[in-house]
Amino acid sequence: MTKISFASHPFLLGFEQLDRLVERTAKSGNEGYPPYNIEQSSENAYRITLAVAGFREEDLAITLENAQLVIRGRQVDDSEGRMFLHRGIAARQFQRSFVLAEGVEVAGASMENGLLHVDLQRCAPETVVQTIEIGK
After folding, report:
1. CA–CA separation, 41 vs 120, rounded Å?
2. Is residue 118 very low, low, confident or very high in pLDDT (cuts 50, 70, 90)?
3. Which parts of 1-136 fold into alpha helices (H)?
4. Tell me, what DSSP letter sits at residue 34?
5. For the domain 31-78+86-122, what is the CATH code?
6. For 9, which DSSP code?
7. 86: which DSSP letter?
8. Where are the domains of the chain?
9. How far is Cα 112 from Cα 115, in angstroms, rounded to an integer?
10. Structure pTM?
11. pLDDT single digits (tens) 43-68
């Protein structure tokens, strides 16, 4: 069976990379942990907020890899020598990925009350008009 993608449409020339990004996002394996919000704070600004209770800033890593924002968390298991009667809060690692559109940049990140905020800013592209001469 042949896989048909939106980038194979004859009017969408050069969108193969976008098609690969969509496919990579679908395969990213993001499960439900940690929960997150995405909000638009202005016309060209966004904020991703992840609930990272129990994580310290040192336990988190934010990277930008090929237009993909990757947020990783790894807690140190400090349960050695302790005996739990019930353990509902596990030292758990995670990875969350978000594909960013061209022109969207990370403006900064902060932590507050167990929430990690990653602010994004869209840079307005310049309008370019180019006249193409017809050769003989």
Report:
1. 10
2. very high
3. 16-26
4. S
5. 2.60.40.790
6. S
7. -
8. 1-29, 31-78+86-122
9. 5
10. 0.72
11. 999 999 999 988 999 999 999 988 89
Max Cα separation, the chain? Answer: 85
> In angstroms, how far is CA 32 from the centroid of its own chain?
14
> Per-residue pLDDT tens for 7-39?
666 667 776 766 776 676 666 555 688 999 999
Q: Which residues pair with 117 in a beta bridge?
A: 49, 110
Q: How many CB atoms lie within 10 A of CB 117?
A: 15
Distances (CA, A) of 128 to 33, 42, 121, 125: 42, 25, 21, 9
Sheet (strand 94-99) strand order = 60-65, 68-73, 94-99
Q: Which long-range contacts (CB under 8 A, 24 or more apart) does 33-39 make?
A: 33/92, 33/94, 34/73, 34/94, 34/96, 36/96, 38/98
Query: 100: closest CA among 29, 30, 48, 33?
Result: 48
Rounded distance, CA 7 to CA 102, Å?
17
Q: Which CA distances in Å does 57 have to 7, 11, 31, 78, 104?
A: 40, 46, 22, 16, 24
Supply angle C-alpha 20, 46, 127, rounded to 5.
70
